[in-house]
């Protein structure tokens, strides 16, 4: 999943980006509310970590603008302002959660998982398609009970596919969601990852889960009942 970190403390911004990247997220970082608005115009995010006290445009104003525009991307406020009134105000404006600094990074990651789970209509961190199970918290994939080792980018692509099960995703959509703004490679890179992912998941199995839609992209589908082994 792709996360936007909006934090004007440079060291904390960098640390957050490193922690989230290590946890498997695609991350973009910025330092003020106006820059955050530009990022949100140029990419689709699964969640936003947002400081309240920001230069140029504060976090409360940014969230209000997003919600007024119909943007429902989950927002987790990160702030030193810990009064009940501040928390209520942020949540009433459309924030999804509130974490007071300083905080524990394990709690932060748990809150991100809970926030994005709720937004996706999921009650657990496990996604399934047929005999395929993807566990986000454990970073583990199995098919038919057999563990399938995946590279970080392969895991991220599979997570994006399974979260959008039945929906055709284009090369451009996958590239936009899985690689951040610092990526300067070729879109053919996506083809290579997809080829390796399909080989790991489907090769030698009677039921295929990932399908190519010629001229459009790829889709992960639940096996039809008549296909199931």
Features:
229 residues, alpha/beta, Rossmann fold, Arc Repressor Mutant, subunit A, 2 domains, 5-stranded parallel sheet, 4-stranded antiparallel sheet, 8 helices, 41% helix
Detailed description of the structure:
This protein is an alpha/beta fold and 229 residues long. It folds into 2 domains: 119 residues, Rossmann fold (3-Layer(aba) Sandwich); 95 residues, Arc Repressor Mutant, subunit A (Orthogonal Bundle). 41% of the residues lie in helices and 20% in strands. The strands form 3 sheets. The protein has a 5-stranded parallel β-sheet with strand order 2-1-3-4-5, with helices on both faces. Strands 6-7-8-9 form a 4-stranded antiparallel β-sheet, with helices on one face. It has a two-stranded antiparallel ribbon with strand order 10-11. Helix 6 crosses helix 8.
């Amino acid at each position: 999943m792709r996360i936007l970190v909006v934090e004007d403390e440079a060291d904390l911004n960098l640390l957050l980006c490193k922690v989230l990247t290590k946890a498997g997220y695609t991350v973009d970082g910025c330092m003020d509310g106006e820059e955050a608005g530009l990022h949100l115009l140029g990419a689709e995010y699964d969640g936003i970590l947002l400081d309240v006290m920001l230069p140029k445009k504060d976090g409360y104003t940014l969230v209000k603008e997003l919600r007024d525009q119909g943007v429902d991307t989950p927002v987790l406020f990160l702030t030193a302002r810990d009064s009940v009134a501040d928390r209520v105000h942020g949540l009433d404006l459309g924030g999804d959660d509130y974490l007071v600094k300083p905080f524990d990074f394990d709690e932060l990651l748990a809150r991100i998982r809970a926030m994005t789970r709720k937004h996706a209509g999921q009650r657990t961190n496990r996604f399934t398609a047929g005999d395929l199970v993807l566990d986000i918290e454990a970073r583990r994939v199995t098919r038919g009970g057999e563990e399938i080792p995946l590279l970080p980018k392969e895991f991220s692509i599979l997570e994006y596919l399974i979260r959008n099960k039945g929906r055709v995703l284009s090369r451009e959509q996958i590239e936009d969601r899985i690689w951040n703004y610092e990526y300067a490679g070729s879109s053919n890179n996506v083809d290579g990852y997809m080829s390796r992912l399909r080989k790991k998941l489907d090769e030698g199995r009677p039921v295929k889960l990932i399908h190519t839609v010629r001229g459009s992209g790829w889709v992960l589908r639940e096996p039809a009942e008549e296909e199931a082994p």
